[in-house]
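Contributing new records

If you add data, match the layout below exactly. Sequence lines come first and carry their own label; structure lines follow with theirs. Keep one chain per record. Anything else will be rejected by the validation script.
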Amino acid sequence: MPTWFLTGASRGIGLETTRQLLQDPSFTVFASCRTPSSAKELAALSSSPGTLHIIQLDAGSTESIESGCKEVLRLLNGGALDYVMNNAAINRGMDLAFNFDPKDLYDSITLNVSGPALISRLLLPALEKSSRGVIMNMTTGLASIASDHGAKCASYSISKAAINMLTYKQARERPDLIPFVIDPGWVKTDMGGEGAMLEPHESVSGLIKVATGVTKESAGKFFGYRGNEIPW
């Protein structure tokens, strides 16, 4: 009876992940979003074969994270959590290292790094009870220095390079868990914007395949949604 928790579940990659997971009646999904009352598409998935719990959680708010994770642990009632997918993120756009708003960088670090770090820490008691204990932190190819993607999206790229390092540190601290980072590709979502190449279902089917297939040897590594390893 695999159990999943994910953030940013009301739209884009998060919504499609929830949809695909719930096609399996054995799966229980804790799908979190900032405003459940307006998440109509997410609520509609309640009739899916799997079990859905919608959790109010704003990944940019410490208080909201603490409240949401406490609710997940309450609903688990001492049970294990097999997968944590830190998906919620912001991208302030095409800012540059010499032309950016400091608040954009601050907000990017808060939501894209501090949020996932705290979520993983607070859900650790349930992850420790799992035979899997997978933490899938969403990153981007833009965070790969070796891939040399240039000057664009400075705040976003910096924050995602930071979550890469967070994940490496998680893997080294807890070799019993499987934390890794993954690039979902350039997906046709609100964040992906015009020109994106991938449909959400294409990316998500790959993400789920990678997550369910990783082993202890995968911990601390950087993958693409096809399962290919990406250079740091």
